[in-house]
Amino acid sequence: MTSTGQDSSTRQRRSRHNPQSPRTHNRGGKGEKGAVPRPSPNLVELKRKGRMKKLSQAVEEDLILGLQRLDLDTEAKLSVGTGLVFDEQLNDFHCFWNDSFPECPERLHAIKEQLVLEGLLDRCVSFQARFAEKGELMLIHSLEYIDLMETTQYMNEGELRLLANTYDSVYLHPNSYSCACLATGSVLRLVDAVLRSEIRNGMAVIRPPGHHAQRGLMDGYCMFNHVAVAARYAQKKHRIQRVLIVDWDVHPGHGIQFAFDQDPSVLYFSIHRYEQGRFWPHLKASDWSTIGFGQGQGYTINVPWNQVGMRDADYIAAFLHVLLPVAFEFQPQLVLVAAGFNALRGDPKGDMAATPAGFAQLTHLLMGLAGGKLILSLEGGYNLHALAKGVSASLHTLLGDPCPMLESTGAPCLSAQNSLSCILEALEPFWKILVKSVETLEKDDLEEEKAEEDEEEGTWEAAALQMETWPVLHGRTGLVYDEKMMSHCNLWDNHHPETPQRILRIMCHLEELGLASRCLILPARPAMDAELLSCHRTEYVERLRATEKMKTRELHREGANFDSIYICPSTFACAKLATGAACRLVEAVLSGEVLNGIAVVRPPGHHAEQDAACGFCFFNSVAVAARHAQAITGRALRILIVDWDVHHGNGTQHMFEDDPSVLYVSLHRYDRGTFFPMGDEGASSQVGKAAGTGFTVNVPWNGPRIGDADYLTAWHRLVLPIAYEFNPELVLVSAGFDAAQGDPLGGCQVTPEGYAHLTHLLMGLANGRIILILEGGYNLASISESMAACTHSLLGDPPPLLPSLRLPQPGALASITETIQVHRRYWRSLRVVKVEDKEEVSSSTIVTKKLHKTANPALAKGMTMPKRKVLEAGTKKDTSALSSNESSPNKSKSRTAKVVLTQSQSSERATKKDTLDQPTSEETVGGVTVDQPSLEVSTGEGMSDQTTSEEAKGGDKLIQTPPASLTDKQTLTVSPVQGTAAQLSPALGHTLELNSEAQETPESEEGLLGEASGGQNIDSLMLTQGFGNLADQEIFYAVTPLSWCPHLVAVCPIPAEGLDITQPCKACGTLQENWVCLTCYQVYCSRYINADMVQHHKTSGHPLVLSFVDLSTWCYLCQAYVHHQDLEDVKRVAHQSKFGEDMPLTH
Hints:
The chain is 30% helix and 11% strand. The chain is an alpha/beta fold and 1147 residues long. It has an 8-stranded parallel sheet with strand order 2-1-3-8-7-4-5-6, sandwiched between helices. Helix 10 runs parallel beside helix 13 and helix 20 (571-590) packs parallel to helix 21.
């Protein structure tokens, strides 16, 4: 197979990236208007001009030296081609005992057929799959586990089925081991190729999937964790320091998460269906509140979707608001994607509504990171047609083809906004770039917006997958330039910043870098009068035409009638040529002659009004080009105009301020109205008028030194969210480069690399149809390098790594926030809000609380549960909600609640992973354990283990109707069941009774989680009830353990010397909160002391541990508490050691 893009012509045709453009242009100073020509300038003026020239030369020399150090001429070093691993041997295993098992060989067959149909196999660089070696697998997995999997090659069907049944959602085949090794090795082969610059990016089309596999555990169809192994392999073999892993499979990749949750060298981002823990694998570790531990805090990012039917807009919003800002700060050197396609519409496992075009967009956004070093590894996806289309769409994008148009406009739904708001708040302390990333709304405003969204959002219904079309182009990037435009010049001031040399220097640099030869050169033409009159008045056009025949003095007088304008006899012809060149490029893009393009033109245009020249501008080239595009198509084509010139495009704004078909976005120096063109036209309050209200967006910078971080923050938080919601069909960029580093008028610090990234990010819009039209920019070196960087992006080259980003300036953040606040009423995509009342946002929160030394006295007296508070079966929507006073991290009071469980909530439902991992108690009441803030009810053995808010499969939900008060007659009565957690009567009047004898435990920090659950909270599982007559109100939890787990085989016989509950931690010597490993019987302290038991598990792989505090048992691999008959003996011995008496028998 051949590599795509091996020669320049092929790259132009196939390597399509989305175009974006930087735009900057300069205005003259106050002295320009009305200047009088002097035949013999005086000495003062000569000295002034000399100083200006010397200063400009010094600045330019410094910039050139800096740019040379950046080594932007990387043409010879750019890697090309997309690698593909696809091996038929990966189909050599299937499920013996279930022909309808979703993870089947037909998945790869369907993908191959689609890739052949679209001609993609021949465009990729084919790589032979290889087997991963044991040493490579051991980067993540234990040797004992690998050896066990290796023995499956020699097992018969009965033995395979028996072993498979000890895991969750897996099957085994004699070829499973070899295929899993081959799948992992395939990803490693691509890692080698990408990091050796053999290819630019790649995709491994493999099975079985891998992201659920843990150190010593098969899980969810997965044996070996391909992506996790690849990350460690890249770090070990290629000395890569920072790896970004993105997991967009509809299930959370908890295997990857657990492997790196304490490692700051790997940033893990997962976006998945969660539904408050009801969706597989039902782990609290998959909620937004789990963000990593120790040095890895902030490096685990979970974006939980809490409802089905999530669409492209929701996924894109998560990338824009969360992933991309953090990734730009993290600066990864390699991006690995656990690319499951089961979130596509029609997938039986996901119930989501994403489209192949949406996954193309996500792929494109990731291609701007790590210098384009991106590898996708196939995970899930079980609708064969949708899977094949999803893989195809992502592969098209990797090859450089433009992203298809999204099928509909839209913004993230309210549920998505809530999830994003929570994760942003959780991450803000760890990432500088997220400072002030969410704004607090007044509750009334929130309710008003929610009502609007409820009206706008219809009920989601599944629809057929959209068929993407991939355009066949003659060339990729068009280039329009004509040296005749240099004849426009200032007859009176040779040092005027808008000099003819501007476009010549840009073209020379494009030719030096070989970029011009990679473009399709299009001839410029003058604009026709009809085109000019679409934006300008007849009288004004004729007035400029008359200047062709004026004498020098008349020209000077005419120029003085406008603001910052000079006119010469060639001005009218050059202005028509500049505008016509932009129109020619529009024609080429809309006809499919080219995908995108750049117009190297002058004079600039965005200040020109309908009837007046202004700020070096005569005809508004971008505005005329927009109207020309609509005229060609014969309809109100949706057009996005992005103006990144350092000066506000007053002319463009006025021409479209009442037109909703054109979205105008300008980022510019404003300086509170004192920067050219002065006045309040560029203020954030200017939003358009009439039908165009909301379609004018101004981001006013109120000072100098605005740089890459500020522009990228504006892109992520404001520009792109609005742009994706608008869903343009054409993007025009007023590409002035006077915000570039070194520009004498702009005073800003945007780098060429920054402009390349801004361009790349815009290229995902409008099917890749984007045109950059030169506006300002007055440092010749700056504009040449900046336009070259943008051209690289348009041609499909990956944006270069950015210099280390500083924190966005406070003033810039204030400007962005101000604009967001103004426009959130018009654009729902800006409503990622921070709400003080978390009841509206999420059922989870990050909380750290102190445990009280004694149980609430009310519990000792006994309380009766109100009849209304029940766990109601047969529903799917979680009604548990956390009130504002309950969610505050500063609260530490004890709160109790009353619960009656229906029969379906008995221990029989807690099988395998149908339950959620939750904390045990740290206090005991008689033989029963009570946690503050969590309550655990068990048999007389003094342990309780697991909490569920809803049965994952049964759909039970918590009905939370708090009683007004409780009386002294209210009691809690226990109905214990031998060998299980307490089984409760379904009768509403039956209650639980707690013994009044309480035992104190040392005070400790508690984050609402168990010893090994990794810091997850359980607020989404709580019964958040308050009782009117209780002074100390807090939160009450009911905990139900797993009744079985596949790792009970790891429990070894009790040592002959027995157990000593008073034994100190082997590592640190503490006597507080110790646990004993049930495999080696070594004693270590809990996570809330020095986390020595957590470390012991990571090094040994031993899964089960017993608490010396409450005698509960935790399984690290299941991430859950376990209560099983096999644990009776060790608990009995521990109870004897702790209390000096036999454990009471259960009934």
